[in-house]
Design goal:
Largest sheet: none
Shape: elongated
Number of strands: 0
Number of helices: 8
Distance between the termini: 50 Å
Helix content: over 70%
Mean pLDDT: 78
């Protein structure tokens, strides 16, 4: 049973012991320990998801999926391979990638329906490099300021001209052009930072 539920201001040794106690509780299917784990790392998981997804509601869903996955997959946790916090962060990253891939599939379906086109007949819609490209694009778009993101999404996914975007949003045409130019520049920088050295964009 977990007797210490403090999550801040712990001395390093006490903190390590507390985390080890929580890890033992998780492996033993102790619900009280799991509740303490959620209190300790829930905000970190939610912050990571919000930053990378750019959507609070999606971040909440991912946070739930992370802790559900941790509970159901607790037998896969190996303390000797690393601390509990790092294990949870690893699950979080995988769930975020899944959420981005799901978002990309939704956008692709919408785009295909709007254009009346089906999947690529040669490569299919799930070719690994194409999926990765779309995941990187959606991730990069999610990091842009909202005005730039909205302008680029209307241009990319709705195939609107800058004049049409200005008409729809009520923004001056010069502002739309500025958002598009700055957004594309930032998008390029974000994508370049996301690709490992030696790999193509």
């Amino acid at each position: 049973m977990i007797t210490n539920t403090r999550t801040t201001n712990l001395a390093p040794v006490e903190e390590t012991r507390y985390e080890e106690e929580l890890a033992r509780g998780l492996l033993a299917a102790d619900e009280e320990a799991f509740a303490a784990i959620y209190r300790r790392w829930g905000s970190l998981v939610h912050t990571m998801a919000t930053r990378l997804l750019g959507d609070t509601h999606e971040a909440e869903d991912v946070t739930q999926q992370v802790f559900l996955g941790a509970w159901l997959g607790r037998v896969g946790f190996r303390p000797e391979r690393g601390p509990l916090g790092a294990w949870l962060v690893g699950i979080t990253r995988r769930k975020i990638v899944d959420a981005l891939a799901a978002r990309t599939r939704r956008l692709t379906l919408i785009d295909s329906a709007a254009r009346g086109a089906g999947p690529d007949p040669v490569h299919g819609d799930t070719a690994p490099d194409r999926v990765l490209d779309r995941v990187l694009l959606v991730d990069a778009l999610s990091r842009l300021p909202r005005p730039q993101r909205e302008v680029l999404c209307m241009a990319f996914y709705e195939d609107l001209t800058q004049a049409q975007i200005a008409e729809r949003t009520g923004l001056p045409l010069g502002t739309v052009k500025s958002h598009a130019r700055r957004g594309l520049h930032r998008l390029r920088l974000v994508i370049e930072q996301s690709v490992a050295p030696g790999q193509g964009a």
